Structures are given as structure tokens and as C-alpha cells.
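Appendix C reproduces, verbatim, an entry submitted by the partner laboratory led by Prof. M.T., so that reviewers can inspect both the input and the predicted structure.
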Amino acid sequence: MKKSLIALSTALALGMFTLTSCEEKPKSAEESLADAKQEAREEKAEINEDLQEAKNDASEKRAEVNAELKEEEREFLAKMEAQRDNIDAELKQIDAKLDNAKGEEKARWEARKDRLEKRKDKIDENMTELKGGLKRDWKSFKADVDKTFDDIKRDLKN
């Protein structure tokens, strides 16, 4: 009997301990509100960190793109200067031929010289625009200069 009494009291104590330990005290509305506010602050801080990281990434990318564009502009400016030098050399040759040309041949050389001088002026305008900061988009500018280059090639072949 003593054993059963000990077993019964142990079981009863264990049961009461189990029932009281599983029950969680409900949070008050103030505690719940405080927890929600803290969670919101943490979320906001995380969002702000993500936003700052995105801004930094965008700034880095913008700097890379600007550097690439500046390099492309420098290369294109060098290309325009080389084309301008080619026209100057051709104009000197035309001037030498004009000294000895007569009649229709002279008129043909003068017409060619006029075309090349206009092309040279166009390159000068484009170089000035590029050096002074483009007022139009890069693709449009580049297409215009490429067309001028094509016209010059055609004029130099004739």
C-alpha cells in the first residue's frame, strides 16, 4: 500500500507539474503591441539597409557605364581626328592637281575639293559638339558621324 500511495502521489505531482508547465501566460495587449512595434522597427531597418545597398550598386553601375562611355567618346574623337587628317592630306593633293589642271578637269577637282571641305567642316562641328557635351543621344550622334565617314570614303574613292 505504501508503494501504491507513493506511486499515486508521484503520478499526481507529475500530472500537476505537466499541466501547469504547459500553460503559457497570455501576453497583454501592451506587450503584443510592443513586440509588433519592435518587429516593425527591425523590418524597417532591414529594408533601409537593402535600399542603401541597391543605391550603392546603382551608383557603381552608373560610374562603370559613364567610364565606358567616356572611353568610347575618346576613341571616337581620335577616329574623327584621323579622318580629318586624311581629308587635309587629300586636300593638299587636290591643290597640287588644281595648279596644273585646266577646263573640265579643273572644275571636277574644284567640286571634289568643295565636297571634302564641307565634310571636314561637318567633322569639325561634330568634334566641337562631342568636346562640349552632347546635346543629343549618343546613338544618334554616332550614326550621324558614321554617315559622314561613309560619305568621306565615297568622296575619297572618286
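Residues 39-157 form one domain. Additional entries are available on request from the coordinating office.
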